[in-house]
Structures are given as structure tokens and as C-alpha cells.
TrEMBL record:
Signal peptide: 1-32
Protein source organism: Neomicrococcus aestuarii
The protein's name: Phosphoesterase
Organism superkingdom: Bacteria
Domain Calcineurin-like phosphoesterase: 55-313
GO molecular function, one term: hydrolase activity, acting on ester bonds
GO CC entries: cytoplasm
Matching InterPro entries: Calcineurin-like_PHP, Metallo-depent_PP-like, TAT_signal
Keywords carried by this UniProt record: Signal
Amino acid sequence: MSKNLVGRRGVLAGTGIAAAAGVLAMAPGANATVTTAKGSAPKNMPLAFNADGKFKIVQFNDTQDGRLTDRRTIELMEKVLDTEKPGFALINGDVINGSPRTAKEVKEAYNNVVMPMESRGIKWAVTFGNHDEDSLSNQTGMREEEIVAFLQQYKHNLNPSPVKGVYGHCNAQLLIRSASKNTAAFGIWLLDSNRYAPDTLGGQNFDGLMGYDWIRPNQIQWYTEASEATERKFGKKIQSLMFFHIPTFEHHHMWFGQQFSSDEAGVAAAKVKHSIEGEKHEEVYTGAFNSGIYAAAQERGDVRGMYCGHDHINTYKGDYFGIELGYGPGTGYGTYGLGGVENHRLRGARVFELDESVATVYAGTRTVFAKDLGVDTTNGDQRLTTPVAFPSYVK
């Protein structure tokens, strides 16, 4: 594990085991829609705009807990869902932490935080973060492949099955059907930003770099080819939002208004230039290498926003040369926050509004916080005494 991943974030659990190769689905779950091969467009649309031409997406992040999740994490998720009534909800990485000691405990940890969506009949998916395989160090045997197979038992899950050919385990393209005709009106891209950088590469270690992995070139190739195929299928570029766990280098550059500096002197001008809103309380913990996903999306011109998690106490977003870059707030109460009496102040979620009457369909985004929904934000833990019950159809 990289020595760079300490400080406010704490000592990370796990051993930095490299993620196994895997990919996008040729055999999706029952509800999923994904590209079936490189260069082909999705076969169907699992999501649809409401009759009024509107649709909401909710992004949760870093629920990051074990089998006895802090009950306020679940309460927060439930209140957001009941208030916003989204058509789709996402937990954008680090769904659990490394504390489970058996495969069953891994499943219990996931079940605790997916049941708010599942029990309400809201379609949902997860992306993977750097912590979701950390329990492997406890010999749980729950790699991301096994986790996906488990999640696909849920009736409302849209995660595809990983197959060989594209790096990662949660890459997917989900299309949202228009309210008025049988065509795609908007899209959702999910990408696996993977886990930790390897110990060495080319005979060199990663000292001095961020110790996280990055979105790999064949994932970007897959996105580009699938985007082009979708354009051919529908006769236009389908505007979309893209979600992955670990932020891009551009998330950093946007905040500081500079590429190679973290000088706060540039922040005020950057906030004006990029219409930045929200807070930043920790470093932008990127992958070790710049993956190039921002440049690829900029060239394709079909991504309206790229949203991440990972840095729990950063909530900002802005317009970076035509693509929104931003964070969803950290949702989970069981992991680090601001510290002190304000530790849980930024627990929350991000809401995205879609409207077919808007030229780009994307109508904007906003954050919602636990404190605004009446969820307790006092410091300390409030653990479940027993895990949430599994649905009868999930083993």
C-alpha cells in the first residue's frame, strides 16, 4: 500500500491487491442494459422518463461501513429517496469497508445500504471504489466478480456482469427512454476507477505519487466506441452523465485554476471562471496517472458531467470547459468526516435533474445534506444491533 494514503484519510484497510481483469457485460442481470460488445449500442433501455418528461438521479457516495452500518447512513438514504423520488440511484464507490470477516458479512454490509432502494422499487447500481475488495485480506473470498453476482439477485439492480475484454467490474451504459417516443433521451455511464496502484511498474515504485489506480485505456476505448455506436443507432449523440469513484486530475486543476500547483491564490479566480460551488476540505486524491477520460469525453461531446466520490469532505462542482466536474458528498456515517463536533456536517447526497424540455436534457444538480432532512449529525457512532434482513429472493 502506498505510503501516500495516510493523514486525515487514516490508514487504509486491505493489502492493495490488484483488481482482476474483467469488464462490461455480455450477460447482464435481468434488469440491466449494457453494451454487448465493443462498438455496439445497448439493446434496450431499463430506465424511462416520467410522463412529464422529467427524471431524477440520486448519487450516494462512500457508505463505507461493515455489517453493523451506522443506522443514520440508512436513515439519510431513506429520507433522500422519499423526498426526491428518483428514477435511479447510485452508490458511487466504497460501498463497504474492509471489516467483514466472512462472505456473509460482506453481503450483509452491502444489503444494509442497497435495501433503501430495493425496498422502494427504485432501480439502482453501484460502482466500485478502492475499498470494496478490502475484506479479501480477511479471506472472505469476495472479489468484485462475486459481489456483482450477489448484487444481481436483487430485482431492481442494474449492474452488468463482468466479462473479459475491458478492465474493471462495473462499467456500464444505461439509457433512459424518452417519455414520448421509443428512443433514448439521456444516458448514464458507470466506470470502474479501480483500486490501488501496483507496488511497482517498470521496476519503479510509486513513492511521491498518489497510491490509487486509474481508469485504464481499454475502458476509455470502450466508452468511445459505445458512444459512437449509440450515436449511429439513434442518429444523435445521447447526452449523459458519467460516474466513477476516484476523481480525475481535472477535478484538481479546476479548483485551483492551475495544472501543476495547489496554490490557494488561484482559487478565487477559478471559482468565478468555472462557476464553482461547494466546499473543499481535503486534497483531490486522484489516481497515480492521468487516465485521459476527461479528454476522451471532451472530444466525444456527449458527457455533461463527471461526478466522483472518494474524498468524503469535498462537495464542490464546477463547469470545466463545458463538462461539469464534481463530487457527491460522503453519505456514510461510519467513515471519516470533517472531524470534531462538525464531523458529520457534510453527510449527504447529490441530486441530478433531467428534463426533456431542456436542450441538453440535463437541467442541473444540487446537494442535499443530513442536517436539512432532520437526520442526527452529532458526533459518534450509532450502530445497528443486527444487520438489515435480506429479501426472500436474495441468498
